[in-house]
Write the structure tokens for this entry.
Amino acid sequence: MKIFFRKKSCYKIVLPLFLLVFSLACSSTPVTSYDLVISQGLVVDGSGSPGFRADIAIDGDTIVKVGEISQEEKAAARQLLDAGNLVVSPGFIDIHTHSDWSLLADGSALSKIHQGVTTEILGESLSVGPMKGLADLSAPYGIDVDWSTIGGYFDRLEKSGVAVNVGSFVGATQVRLCVLGEASREPTPAEMAEMEALVEEAMQEGAFGLSCALLVPPNTYITTEQLVKLCQVVKPFDGLFSIHIRSEGIGIEDSILEAIEIGERAEVPVDVLHMKIADKRLWGRMAEVCGLIEKARARGLEVTANQYPYIAGQNNLDALVPPWAMEGGTSRMMERLAEPASRKRMEKDLNEGIPGWYNHYLAMGEWDNCLVASVENEKNKRFEGKTVAQIAEMTGKRPADAVWDLLLEEGGSVPAVYFLMSEDDVKYLMAKPWVSVGSDGTAVRPDGPLGEGKPHPRWYGTFPRILGKYVREDKVLTLEDAVRKMTSFNAEKLGIEDRGTIAAGMKADLAVFDPDLVLDQATFENPHQFPVGIDYVVVNGVVTLEKGEYTGVRSGRILRKGQ
């Protein structure tokens, strides 16, 4: 150093230069390092507002910036996704699903992640809790039921890991089964109080509200009055009443009015599950049915609906069994299915209808409208994907006898797809601003036990079908409104405040897709097919789908209302 500083000319030049560089280094703003940056996508933020070009920065599980991010910041990001030709939207919230058991069997939720779904809401009528008095329950996929409440189920699912966020309703039929079993009688005051206590417990553990399905026994045993009382328990928790109405065919008007009455009397918001007209005799009357809800909304009541974008629904072959034949539960139904006199009476009621029960699944006796989705018995595997009309021809039986025999051989349960709706009615309802999207499907995958049978293609295709067919091709919805119906609107119904829109401070659940390519691929003949055009999915800030491939991570969380 002594030698250097003897050279005064060097000292006069180098020292000021050193001080200048040091000063600039100290005064310059350090480059922010984000965990994930999604660059220059068309942001459709879920609000329904027009899309805009922007960058999105994510730290941890949270969106921290939506706007312009410098090239230096992008270069410093731990992960950078180029979305220049893609749409970036909130992750889709599936408000109506049946993945309660399948997510325990396989938490990867592949059929949902590939659709852009980041949140699943479970618990239609038969929820996974409470389990009081149901210790002998035979759970699917060999799952050992080691919980007794819905909170216990949440803990079990959280421990096993899941790729999507999960919330649940508490099921009205579930609490009734815990207290009354499959008995069709009225509960005593003490039993009703016990049912109410079970609902309150579930709400305290984070359920989003009460759900019911009133189409077939034992669901049909729940009365309007009982539902009002159970919904009154939900009210202090700001819960939602999610209702599968009693009839979607003859009697649909009264069924809609019952849903409205329950919500009004209990002072809770109502969401009608997979709203539809499922009876050929009533096709074209969707405007009248919607008018009932719109009159209620005009009076200030919170009444909404959700819908899946198909003309076929899925239920069970036992939906063709008249209610009287289901009295006493599955064992008694099976006995009647084996009795010649009962079989003849069931067929007569199925064709002609009986007071209080109007079968709409086979209007006009159209047996080719009913498709067997899956069976357990190996000898019946040949019937999967076949209509009842085809099965009757294959076996040389009358169609009704083919149904009764198949139910007998399959233990009383055969999942089935029913072609019920008109495309015009589907489109009319879809355009209503108070209707959101829900799949009524299950998280499965193409291989292994979850890849068996021929389930409804909505399990794989609901959300891409909305974007591909009903936005791009048929122009029933704008892109912005479709995204709103699949994201923020469902979040609003459920009371989820930190998901469903893209903004700083919101959780980083995102779907990134190609608006020109996105489309469902699942068909009724070959349903186990992923859609195309969904490029990336982010769940709680973690890339779960990358370039259309599952990354193997399970970053989903349990969503408990109010917690």
The chain has a mean pLDDT of 93. The two ends are 65 Å apart (CA to CA).
